[in-house]
Amino acid sequence: HEMGPFEIWDAIGVRDSLPRMEADGYAVAPWVHTMLDQGIETFYRRDSVGRVNGVYDPNVGGYIDLAEDKNIIILKDLKNAGHEIAHNESASLIDLGDGIILLEAHSKGNTFDDDIFKMMARGLDGLDSGYEGMVISNQADNFSLGANLFLAMMLAHGGQFDQLEQALKAGQDMLMRVRYAPKPVVVAPFGQTLGGGAELTMAAARVVAHSELYIGLVETGVGIVPGWGGCKEMLRRALSPVMQTQNADPLPHLQKVFEQIALAKVSESAMIAREMGFLSPSDRIVMNRSHQIAAAKRTALEMAEAGYAPPPRAKVYAAGRDAKAALTVGVFMMRDAKYISEYDQKLANKLVHVLCGGNITAPAWVDEQYILDLEREVSMSLFAEPKTQERIAYTLQNGKPLRN
After folding, report:
1. What is the pLDDT of residue 50?
2. 236 SS3 class
3. What is the pLDDT, as a whole number, of residue 252?
């Protein structure tokens, strides 16, 4: 419930509902009658923009002031108070004060579409014109369910593959812009943070996560591979640091990344998300969801005050032909044992192709864009597959993946 019992009573009208309650046999506390006799109509007092600033105290016989909690930021109240800078159907930009801007998604499921990216671009532009940092979060039930699959399915069904590829490229470019923004971009995820939501989280300069975080790259469940940098980021985080050591074996670490994506594993908490590589050791975890946005704002301010600079452009380790062969054999054995379907095998081999650097014959350090191009190439080939289109349609209709 968004409202507590006394907020609900205020909403339906204390004076209007009281006779009905008593007629139905519910005993109403005498102090409620006293409150109404005093001409006080609500348990909570609100200011001109709807924020609660007082509560009725029966012992006092009137309202007592509520001290403002600096650790709680309510986006709806900020918008009512005129702090909304811009908005469209899918997102809003809100001024949090102290030079920090916030991007709030409010599309269905907070799925990413062109409107959200337009507002994200406007927020990033603001970092070049006076703002000191940016927070990306919202106060819905879940942070984000990823990309807008319905739009992707419509484009694929209509044969509009050029537009679909443009959308994929736009998402990749936007998340790279987030990663290399000149000032700190802090993402504050919570609840279900899936697909593109996970990729946005990993693109952030810093993450302030709620402890209840269910994050994962779940694209294989709908017949595609992560296409907005998820593969690239997992390689950069899990494999590239290990391969800085001479003669290190990439296969165990590559195998872990492969299994995590291929099996669409989702964390059970923020702590497990850290173990899975979605959060870095420097990312923060907060226990109180009500404090999350304020903590993200403080983090952005601290990073700005410390003289934040974007990270240098990274190289990613691509393991090449031998690792690709080893993983492909593992996939074949899973299919031979009937643990996966024939189409699962095809998806897994496509994922292996991306994670190992495509068709390169020997291990190499490659630009991030090289892996992004592979992600996009493989995603486009899979969107054209009837079985992928079946998986997307089934997921949209039933809310769960199809094994075909």
Report:
1. 75
2. helix
3. 95
Contacts of 318 (CB under 8 A, 6+ apart): 235, 356, 357, 358, 360, 363, 364, 365, 366, 370, 371
Predicted pLDDT of residue 393 = 92
- Spell out, as residue ranges, where the chain has pLDDT lower than 70: 1
Contacts of 180 (CB under 8 A, 6+ apart): 310, 311, 313
In angstroms, the CA 393 to CA 227 distance is 19
Between the CA of residue 267 and those of 81, 194, 270, 276, what are the distances in Å? 37, 10, 7, 7
Q: Are 141 and 190 in contact (CB under 8 A)?
A: no
The predicted structure's pLDDT at residue 68: 79
At residue 286, the pLDDT reads 97
3-state helix, strand, coil in the chain (%, to 5): 50, 15, 35
State whether residue 172 is helix, strand or coil: helix
Query: Is the separation of the CB atoms in 195 and 250 below 8 Å?
Result: no
Strand arrangement of the beta sheet that strand 91-97 belongs to: 84-87, 91-97, 100-105, 133-136, 185-187, 206-210, 284-286
pLDDT of amino acid 17: 95
* pTM > 0.85: yes
Which residues 6+ apart lie within 8 Å of 256 measured at CB?
238
Task: Tell me how far apart the alpha carbons of residues 51 and 77 are, in angstroms, rounded to a whole number.
Answer: 6
Burial class (CB in 10 A: 0-12, 13-18, 19+), 21: middle
- Encoded tokens for 397: 């209709």
What type of residue is 377?
E
